[in-house]
Amino acid sequence: MRRERVRTYHEILNELCSDKKRKGSYRCFAAADPARVIPSCVIGSAVAGALSMAFECTLRAPHGGIFVVPTIGNPLMYLLAIAIGAVVSMILLAILKKPLNK
């Protein structure tokens, strides 16, 4: 449990600061449990993408992580869409992942 939690913190930092040339920070989780992690990430990403389109957000930079927020049209709603998508993924993972043995 501790190892997975530490890895989660590293992945969050990687996601915030990465330039998206890496295909996603969910890989280490997906390799351990792909049947539960990949659908959760896909659904959460779809929710975030749909919300950002509904909020009419624009993004002029194709990648750049958190550093391109100043170039986003409607940046607060964009960040809200990402946060909601992350929460959806988190809830799905909490429901689908089996409990760790102590």
Concise summary:
The protein is mainly alpha-helical and 102 residues long. It has helices at 2-17, 27-32, 34-54, 75-96, and strands spanning 58-59, 72-73. It is elongated.
Describe the structure.
Helix 3 packs antiparallel against helix 4. This protein has a two-stranded antiparallel ribbon. The longest helix is centred in the C-terminal third of the chain and has 22 residues, at 75-96. The relative contact order is 0.16. The protein contains four helices and two strands; from the N terminus they run H-H-H-E-E-H. The protein has 102 residues and is mainly alpha-helical. It starts with a helix and ends in a 6-residue tail after the last helix.
Please state the structural category.
mainly alpha
Overall geometry comes to elongated
Q: Could you report the average pLDDT, rounded to the nearest whole number?
A: 78
Output the number of helix runs.
4
Q: How many strands appear in the DSSP assignment?
A: 2
Radius of gyration: 15 Å
Element pattern in H and E = HHHEEH
Helix content: 55-70%
Low-confidence stretches: none
> Which strand order does the major sheet show?
1-2
